[in-house]
Backbone:
């Protein structure tokens, strides 16, 4: 069986998802033996492979160079995987889009001519994305599991449609497996019921309510949870502020609120 | 002669380099950062104190702990919140974990291959399988510390204004101590290996900036110092640091009285080496480098020495912790936690505790001193914010180094010149996601 050529790369982000991959430690090295590393700037300095079987891309496309890089990677890769909240949702960089982003850039920089300040969009708005591995950061166990399946799919010449799909379960599912006390029932503003699980619920397990870094469940109706939270004394604005954190707000509501 | 490197690998983030050598002089030497601006100081404004430290942690996936904690320290300054001794101990443990894991990544995976001309770490791992295992074991130990206290190693969850939303089990802290004892010999062995490496000879006068603290080798708190001599209160020092934008990227270069300066492990060792723990001191001595060292390549050795120091320090702190079980009642603002702030602030009983004000925070991040400033309004929202990261401070000196070093290198083949430039850049351990933020 031919070893698939893998690219792990980033656009603009914190690079925490790549660190999560390195944090697999020995298990990453085990994986590295089964693949050909075509590009992974954390570990090597060689010229990139011409083409990739699988490209993992983390980060948001902020600069023109980021966008060119993404388009180029798409052309050169059989399978393109978006890695983490920035690539799947926009991530924290998108917060400015809910504010006055032109005022924000002037606040940070005196000369704004050279600073690129586009609206932040997920990768799928620019290129065809074959798979999204969400989270801020990604769940490294989930990543390992998906990569193993992907390698099998790619090296057997299967189609992406034959790739097993992650289940559409809420964070509450993971939380119950951990036998956590329900933070929502405790009165906290936890968004677990409408957010995509698979993370292993590290946040609620630490007493930190889910803030939706993995994005919403498909076709979720937020009304029930909103009603419940408002009954508990929270305002819609407070809920929306949390939905802004990783660029989730417009994923849940069909039309994004206009910037103020 | 033009020297151009489009992309330098094995650093955090993206950067390139271009220089022109004309008549034996470097006309320009630009280290250009290819990172988009996420406008962090802008986007944190008008947001609640309870959430900004979580967002700030996302500046960096390599050192999220230091952004999270420095942000909290600045907020605590602004809100007039004091934290307990217990909180400080636990935060220090998290810091030690952060420094160890970041340094282990840098010295072994980013820098070491430069000494052997290996372009691929898998080749390096094949050549030094035992060293690779040590580096991995060290990183895993460090991640575990952050996980036990912070709930997660990348973007920790439990630290909040005034303390923690959840405290670790006393048992788990004990486990950290036992693991530290077990893995310390591996850290020592790895550091000894770095003490024996042949570092390129390049020295240049500069000012070294770090925290100083009469009580300890400071990573979490202290005054600021230049070369271990003049001392400044944090607020005064932050006003001394001038930030200036450049035309070719989004990282503001910093200076103090028009001079560049250096922060990071070598600055800390230069300023504070007398306070290192025993084993770390031994390795430093065995390396025979003369202190203060003006050689930026020694930053790599300094990091390896600090890894050992941090192991020893972890054991010390665990010893201090182990007599008592952790107790929320020790934290003064326990009630003003994340939980309540996330709720309707007008209905919160804590609302009256929020007072407008401004605050400063500084910490020794793995790459050097990290500064935060916040101004918080009456409504509990952030009004103003400034963040000065270690790499943003170091880039000005790095660019000057390159300008002076390049003419000395010009008779080497071009590939070799490029390799040496890359090696110097990596010795600084730049983090460009931090620098741009």
Residues:
């Amino acid at each position: 069986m031919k070893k698939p050529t893998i690219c792990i790369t980033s656009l603009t982000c914190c690079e925490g998802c790549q660190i999560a991959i390195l944090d697999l430690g020995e298990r990453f090295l085990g994986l590295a033996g089964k693949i050909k590393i075509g590009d992974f700037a954390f570990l090597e300095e060689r010229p990139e492979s011409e083409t990739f079987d699988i490209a993992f891309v983390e980060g948001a496309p902020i600069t023109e160079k980021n966008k060119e890089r993404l388009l180029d990677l798409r052309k050169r890769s059989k399978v393109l995987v978006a890695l983490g909240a920035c690539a799947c949702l926009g991530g924290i960089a998108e917060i400015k889009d809910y504010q006055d982003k032109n005022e924000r850039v002037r606040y940070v920089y005196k000369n704004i001519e050279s600073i690129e300040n586009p609206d932040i969009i997920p990768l799928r708005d620019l290129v065809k994305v074959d798979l999204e591995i969400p989270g801020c950061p990604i769940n490294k166990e989930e990543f390992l599991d998906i990569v193993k399946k992907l390698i099998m799919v790619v090296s057997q010449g299967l189609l992406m449609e034959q790739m097993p799909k992650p289940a559409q379960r809420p964070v509450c599912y993971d939380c119950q497996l951990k036998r956590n006390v329900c933070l929502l029932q405790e009165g906290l503003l936890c968004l677990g019921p409408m957010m995509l699980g698979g993370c292993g619920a590290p946040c609620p397990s630490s007493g930190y309510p889910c803030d939706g870094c993995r994005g919403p469940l498909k076709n979720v109706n937020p009304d029930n949870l909103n009603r419940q939270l408002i009954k508990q004394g929270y305002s819609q604005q407070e809920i929306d502020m949390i939905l802004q954190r990783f660029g989730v707000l417009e994923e849940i509501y069909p039309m994004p609120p206009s910037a103020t | 002669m033009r020297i151009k490197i489009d992309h330098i690998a094995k650093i955090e983030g993206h950067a390139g380099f271009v220089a022109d050598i004309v008549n034996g002089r470097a006309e320009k030497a630009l280290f250009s950062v290819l990172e988009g601006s996420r406008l962090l100081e802008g986007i944190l404004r008008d947001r609640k104190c309870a959430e900004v430290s979580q967002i700030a942690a996302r500046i960096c996936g390599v050192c999220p702990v230091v952004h999270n904690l420095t942000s909290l320290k600045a907020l605590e300054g602004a809100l007039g919140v004091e934290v307990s001794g217990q909180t400080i101990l636990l935060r220090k443990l998290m810091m030690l974990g952060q420094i160890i894991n970041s340094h282990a990544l840098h010295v072994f995976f980013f820098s070491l291959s430069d000494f052997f001309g290996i372009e691929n770490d898998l080749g390096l791992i094949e050549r030094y399988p035992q060293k690779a295992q040590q580096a991995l074991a060290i990183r895993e130990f460090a991640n575990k510390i952050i996980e036990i206290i912070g709930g997660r190693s990348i973007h920790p969850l439990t630290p909040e204004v005034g303390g923690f939303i959840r405290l670790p089990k006393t048992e788990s802290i004990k486990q950290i101590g036992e693991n530290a004892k077990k893995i310390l010999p591996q850290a020592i062995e790895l550091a000894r290996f770095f003490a024996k490496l042949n570092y390129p000879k390049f020295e240049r006068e500069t000012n070294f900036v770090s925290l100083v603290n009469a009580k300890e080798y400071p990573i979490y708190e202290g005054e600021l110092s230049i070369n271990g001599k003049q001392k400044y209160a944090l607020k005064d020092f932050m006003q001394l640091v001038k930030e200036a934008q450049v035309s070719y990227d989004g990282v503001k270069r910093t200076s103090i009285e028009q001079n560049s300066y250096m922060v990071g492990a070598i600055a800390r060792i230069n300023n504070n080496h007398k306070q290192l723990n025993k084993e770390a001191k031994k390795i430093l001595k065995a390396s025979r480098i003369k202190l203060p060292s003006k050689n930026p390549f020694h930053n790599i050795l300094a990091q390896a020495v600090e890894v050992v120091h941090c192991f020893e320090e972890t054991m010390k702190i665990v010893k201090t912790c182990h007599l008592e079980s952790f107790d929320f009642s020790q934290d003064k603002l326990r009630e003003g936690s994340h939980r309540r702030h996330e709720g309707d602030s007008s209905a919160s009983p804590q609302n009256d505790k929020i007072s407008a004000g401004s605050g400063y925070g500084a910490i020794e991040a793995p790459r050097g001193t990290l500064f935060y400033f916040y101004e918080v309004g009456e409504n509990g929202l952030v009004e103003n914010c400034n963040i000065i990261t270690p790499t943003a401070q170091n880039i000005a000196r790095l660019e000057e180094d390159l300008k002076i070093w390049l003419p000395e290198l010009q008779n080497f083949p071009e590939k070799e010149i490029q390799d040496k430039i890359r090696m110097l850049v990596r010795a600084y351990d730049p983090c460009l996601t931090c620098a741009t933020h």
User: Anything to note?
Assistant: Chain B touches chain A through 66 residues (CB under 8 Å).
